[in-house]
Amino acid sequence: MGRLEADRYQRRADVLNRGFSGYNSDWFLRFAATDEGKADLFDHDNVKIVSVFFGANDSSDSELNARQHVPLDRYKSNIKEIVKLARHNFGEEVNIILIAPPPVCHEGRLQFQKERYKEKATGKLERTLELAGKYGKALTEVAEELGLPCLDLWSKMQASSSSTQPWQHYLSDGLHLSASGNKFVGKALIDLIDDLLPELAVLPCTQSGNINSSSRSSVSMPRIAPWHDEIDHLQPERSFRNLRLE
To answer: Phi, psi at residue 219, to the nearest 5°?
Structure first.
């Protein structure tokens, strides 16, 4: 999903993806406590937005997938600790967005089992729509308690379903995001920023929709280097006159 954000914020901010495949919130906090984790996660300056996206693994069934399961109360506590770490390392004013886990498609998970494990497939669901919903609800409660914006994917993705594009289409195997699912989440995150954090929004040209020219705008996110349509092709040096030369 970071591709859409990177495109929207090109030459204004770098989008760093620190997703850890298969991790739950317990394991992430353990990594964050190591020297390597501290350097990788927090050694960054002028951070504007931090998005926190956990729950799909934490909400695994406690018996069928005890390895990744995190009890609900500890999950909520872990999210609060991650928020605390973000504020401690990036400043109290950093903008934090919580993202709830997406829904789970039972048919997709069972089909994935059959394709991957063949005759060894158990036919049992280690993740369910109901469990994901409980953890999604818990995350929205944490967001409300902390006064943070929340992107409730579990609800939003299902609400977007239509006869031509059911929400299950956003999942590649009933759990992980498909290409269209990544696009859905990326757009939903940009929309949330535009609505709730307008000072950090980058708006495309209202006429052309372009995001790579001088017609785009942002209240507080300055761009790096002149846009191409600002450069005088006859005297290009004039366009770069006020920039420092190394």
So the answer is: -70, -45
**Secondary structure in 3-state letters for the chain:** CHHHHHHHCCCCCCCCCCCCCCCCHHHHHHHHCCHHHHHHHHCCCCCCEEEEECCCCCCCCCCCCCCCCCCHHHHHHHHHHHHHHHHHHHCCCCEEEEECCCCCCHHHHHHHHHHHHHHHCCCCCCCCHHHHHHHHHHHHHHHHHHCCCEECHHHHHHHCCCCCCCHHHHECCCCCECHHHHHHHHHHHHHHHHHHCHHHCEECCCCCCCCCCCCCEECCCCCCCCCHHHCCCCCHHHHHCCCCCC
Please, which residues bridge with residue 51 across strands? 97
| 20 touches 68 (CB < 8 A) | no
- Mean pLDDT for the stretch of residues 155-167: 94
pLDDT tens, 55-83?
Answer: 999 999 999 999 999 999 999 999 999 99
pTM value is 0.92
